[in-house]
Design goal:
alpha+beta; ten-stranded mixed beta sheet; 41% strand
Length: 260
């Protein structure tokens, strides 16, 4: 049968990214405790297309993803996926984004009841022209923030709100940063963490914790920057925080990117 994709093209335009998006597949993510967590991943997988190729072979993308969906993966395996798809499509570069919900067990601070909280996570991977592999770990962490100004000027209490800290990090290739540790680091920079299950004694604890740890969105970002700077394995980071304001119809926002 004639292979149309492999035919030539005379328009002289190389395409930077060609492939598949919104591929939904189950994957097994390696957890810090040595277990594997099954997740539903939403994947974009692309390669570069030289100017003289009419198209790429889309079926090969699914073949590679299906094979790897049967194996536990972490950052190292993401590199293997990219090298395999680049080789099978004769591409010099490949890129993947794998977004998924990851669940971490949370223990209530006083009652010690346990439950699980979901976090939006993303693996970003690139294989470049010289076979250099680049990996970015991304996570969005819901937290509580409490306004220092409201605390200072109010006779009764202070307004607080749910916030989201979104971070992307690159770490040294000879080291490893677990999702669980990254989430814990980010939660520690907020006024208080969020729990899916709280009894009354827990609610009292986290309410008072937030009140004693009031932070503007700028405070959250600066404290996160310091924590990342002090982390021995992180070499680059991008962090943003959104406070979903409880007394305004707008949100407070801050962001910082840095290469160490």
């Amino acid at each position: 049968m004639k292979d149309i994709q492999s035919m030539g093209d005379d328009r002289g335009i190389a395409i930077q990214k060609v492939g598949l998006t919104d591929v939904h597949l189950p994957f097994s993510i390696q957890s810090k405790d040595g277990q594997h967590q099954s997740v539903l991943a939403n994947i974009q997988l692309t390669v570069d297309l030289p100017h003289n190729f009419k198209g790429t072979h889309m079926s090969r993308f699914i073949e590679v993803l299906n094979d790897w969906s049967q194996k536990p993966i972490s950052s190292r395996e993401v590199g293997h996926i990219l090298r395999e798809i680049a080789g099978r499509t004769e591409a010099q570069r490949a890129h993947i984004e794998m977004a998924f919900k990851y669940f971490i067990k949370k223990t209530a601070p006083v009652s010690k009841y346990t439950s699980v909280l979901d976090y939006d996570c993303t693996f970003y991977g690139d294989i470049l022209q010289d076979d250099t592999f680049s990996f970015i770990l991304g996570v969005a962490v819901p937290v509580t923030s409490l306004c220092p100004c409201s605390k200072e000027i109010s006779k009764y209490g202070a307004h607080n709100q749910r916030s989201t800290i979104r971070a992307k990090i690159q770490y040294r290739q000879d080291r490893f940063v677990w999702l669980e540790d990254l989430v814990a680091l980010l939660e520690a920079q907020a006024s208080a963490p969020i729990y899916p299950l709280l009894k009354r004694e827990d609610e009292k604890y986290v309410t008072e914790l937030a009140y004693e740890n009031a932070k503007f969105v700028e405070d959250v970002i600066r404290d996160t920057v310091l924590a990342f700077r002090n982390h021995p394995d992180i070499v680059w980071f991008d962090v943003e925080c959104i406070n979903y304001e409880s007394i305004h119809n707008h949100n407070a926002y801050a962001r910082h990117t840095e290469t160490k």
